[in-house]
Every structure is written in structure tokens, then in C-alpha cells.
Amino acid sequence: MTTTDPRPLTGEPIALDLLNTRWTRDGVPVDLFAGAGAAGLTRVEGVALWLRSTGLDDRFQADAPTLIHLLTAREALARAVADPADEGARALVDAVLENGRIRVTLTARGPGERAEFADPAWGPAWTAARGYLDLLATAPGRIRSCAGEDCTLRFFDASRGGTRRWCARGACGNRAQAPHHPARTRVR
Q: Is the pTM of the predicted complex or chain greater than 0.85?
């Protein structure tokens, strides 16, 4: 199994990281959860890789039910991010959130919280949907789509001025700016 994450953008908040399990490579759609097309991984191996990359692999299993729930959450989040006013998208996100809850606890350090699931296979999907709510509560205007022409990636703009436009400046940013860069030639 491939241990290197083939995705061009990782490390975004978990809701956006789940969306970024679909991307384009040379104009061709790639899906980490689709099986053989994504770096030779099976569908469940793609889930295992994603769980590892997000730090959820110590709490949840990579299996077929988890895959199905992640696909459900990814579609719900994709619709909600694309159109926050879409009532249907909000209902889909709410349907994912119905599968878990936060239990308030008292720990040795004081108040705490613990997520609970009737079916643990919903854990990663619920965690991603909950992460989306956290982004909305923090700075909804900073949830962005890459401005790259063929790029489908999403990111949370954590730049000081809130002006980030590309998933990665060294990739989409360079491709966008290269045609506008004046030729620099010197005669010596």
C-alpha cells in the first residue's frame, strides 16, 4: 500500500481536507476513495491513508461502512461549501451530524467534551461535518476555492490579510502568474 499521500494539498481543516480527497491531475479527475485510479490504492486503502493523514486512524477503522459515510459527508460538504444558502445541502450536513453528539464531561483539568457515535463508522464523517461548523463559526468568508483554472481544491485562508487565492502558490499560483510575468532578457 502507498504510504505517501498523493493529494496535492493536505493539512487543511478536516472538512476541507475531506473535500480535497477529489482533485484534478493534468485535467483528469482523481479521487482518493475511488480505488485503482488514485495511486493504485483500493477504496478502503484510500480511507486508511486519509484517516492517517488527519490523525483519526487511532480512533476509527478504515472499512466499507466508514467509506460509505465519508462519501456521504463529502457530497454534503461539497454542496454546502459551493452554496451555503442551499437548504438541501444544509439538510444533508445535518443528516450526517445526526449520527453523533458531543458529551460534556468533567476531566481532571476541568470541563471537557467527547464525541459519541451509536455507530463508530460514522465517526470520521461526523468529525468532518462538525469541523465545517467550526469553520463557519470562526470565519466563513475564509473558506475558499482555489483560483487555479482547472483546480478543484478548497482551503481555509489563514493569511493575515485574507487574500490567499491559490491552493499552493508554487503550483496553481505560479501557473496563473507565469503568462503575465514579463520576459527578462539582457543583452551583455
A: yes
